[in-house]
Amino acid sequence: MGNGPDWTRWELGEWKRWRLMREKGLAAPHGWLSLTALHWLDEEPRPVDGFPGLWSGDEAEVHAEFSTEDAVLRRDEPVSGSVDIPLEEDESDASLAHDGIVAEAGVRGGRPMVRLRDPQAPALTGFTGVPTYDWDPEWTVRAHFDPFRTDLVREVETAHPDVRQPMTFWGEVRFTRDGEDVRLLVSGGHGDAYVVFHDPTNGVDTADWRFVKLGEVDPMGGTSLDFNRALNFPAAFVPSYATCPRPVAENVIPFPVTAGERRPTSN
What we know:
Elements: H1 5-26, E1 35-40, E2 46-48, E3 51-58, E4 61-66, E5 72-74, E6 77-79, E7 81-86, E8 92-98, E9 101-108, E10 111-117, H2 122-125, E11 140-157, E12 164-177, E13 180-187, E14 194-197, E15 210-213, E16 222-226, E17 231-232
Antiparallel strand pairs: 1-10, 2-3, 3-4, 4-7, 5-6, 5-8, 8-9, 9-10, 11-12, 11-16, 12-13, 14-15, 15-17
């Protein structure tokens, strides 16, 4: 981690560029803000509002039946008849489209589902950006990562009240700030590790919970958490259609984290 005014200006510039990419991603035609529906499926084929076909599924597969008249595309090619989409837990397939709307098949908490993504969704067409705290280099916190010998798998609550899903933790990150020692469980994996956390700003100035990625871990376990890059989950923008994991009880930061993304101005 560098220091000095030149380094600080460079970091600020990098953060601004990163913010532009973040908001560009949110504004994508079939990104998170395009969600307009969430339909839970079972083994009985049935129609879903907003997309052609008959849909069914179980914990390992989503199945759909289309006619030629449905005018459904799969990977940009016309499709009719049976479509079987094998899926694992927390996996999605967004290969089906009709009239500009994408059907995202998935499994969450062992339950099959289909979500619809529409470029004309109100959350997307009304999107003007995400409020953030001002960038502050003091919120890039030095930390230490301790990997577990064996991954810890826990069932966690999600943004959807009826969905619990397994989440794998592969270590713990610890740091000290203002005399407070903090330990947090780390999800993800090498190169994509992150922490889902609560802090006292939640529900007041920020969304109900957020997440932040873990910095590169050196051979001695040294790493960092840049809370300037703390992000909202999709549930903060489209709460009716999201199944984002909530923090486990251990992942509470006792002091206000006045950095990163704030509560969206509208959903």
